Amino acid sequence: MIPIDLIQSTAENLMDKAAIEIPDDYLSGLEAAAHVEDGDLSAFVLQAMLENYKAAKEDRRAMCGDTGCPRWYVKMSNEAQVQGGPVALETALRRATAAATNGVPLRPNRVHPLWRTDHDNNVGIAAPEIEYGFEPAPGGEWIDLTTVHKGGLFGTDYRMLFPSDGIEGIKRFYLDSLVAFGKRGLSCQPAIIGIGLGGSKDACMVLGKRAACLRTVGDRNPDPKIAALEMEFKELGNSIGMGAMGFVGKSMVIDCHIEVGYCHTGGMQMSVHAFCLSSRRACARIWADGRVEHRTDPAWFTPYQRRETVEWPTALAAE
């Protein structure tokens, strides 16, 4: 059984890491963009951000003044048992969020939509969001905690496309979204772009956000045709003449990730999400024996998460 105190202390530590330490994969992608950027203002912004990330880590301060809206992704092995059960788990994550808001500190961004009630701790009705996944792999009791500090205002769009729109329709909406993000200041570029295709509207939005936040720079979809689209869309996004923070340049997209879900025969839902210039995530696996293994790759999109079959073959589950 996984101790609840260990879950909470690990969650608090992850909140600190996500706010302060830029993941290595994104840092490498940003450095590569800075190396080729020739737009004066875009190049200046990229260099300033790289210096800011270094200073934030040295001073143990949040890398960006707007720390977004903290959220949690929880994945559990099929054998995992949490002390106190799921209610205790969610309580631990809410406590960790409140503690980090005052401790890191994080900006208390969460308010009631109508009354603007603010508890100054990023906790409230349906906040923070907690999403779940499960894995059939045997081998012990473990739980993965991933925190993402995602901007909660802009940098997201949705459109109901139709099968006849095809790949060209997907490209048009993708470019429309990036241009709007840049011209109207709706996201902080360069960013990891996540695209969700298919599902119902809510599932499409979830797929796109997870594609942006839970996959690392350089990771490719296992479907070779989708992987090719990801590479094409990265190049396409960097060819529209916009760079960092919407200035003239060629560093709009650090990487592009696409995730799909089966949808209604008459539609082709699409969502676009920008995980901003301060791509903030941290992950750890907690074992029942007390081990805690930190990493920056959430490893969320396993074969099981992308399964198409009714049953999950026993042979695959044993691997």
Please tag this protein with its features:
alpha+beta; 2 domains; globular
Account of the protein in words:
This protein has 319 residues and is of the alpha+beta class. It folds into two domains: 4-17 and 62-151 and 281-317, 60s Ribosomal Protein L30, Chain: A; 153-275, no CATH class. Helices cover 37% and strands 21% of the residues. It contains eight helices and nine strands. The protein has helices at 4-20, 24-36, 40-59, 85-103, 166-183, 201-213, 224-237, 314-317, and strands at 69-77, 130-135, 142-150, 156-161, 191-198, 253-261, 268-275, 281-287, 292-295. A five-stranded mixed beta sheet has the order 2-1-3-8-9, covered by helices on one side. Strand 8 (281-287) and strand 9 form a beta hairpin. Helix 1 (4-20) runs parallel beside helix 4 and helix 2 (24-36) runs antiparallel to helix 3. The two termini are 23 Å apart. The mean pLDDT is 94.
Task: Describe the secondary structure blueprint for this structure.
Layout: H1 4-20, H2 24-36, H3 40-59, E1 69-77, H4 85-103, E2 130-135, E3 142-150, E4 156-161, H5 166-183, E5 191-198, H6 201-213, H7 224-237, E6 253-261, E7 268-275, E8 281-287, E9 292-295, H8 314-317
Parallel strand pairs: 1-2, 5-6
Antiparallel strand pairs: 1-3, 3-8, 4-7, 5-7, 8-9
Keywords: 4Fe-4S, Iron, Iron-sulfur, Lyase, Metal-binding
Domain Fe-S hydro-lyase tartrate dehydratase alpha-type catalytic: 10-283
InterPro entries: Class-I_Fumarase/Tartrate_DH, Fe-S_hydro-lyase_TtdA-typ_cat
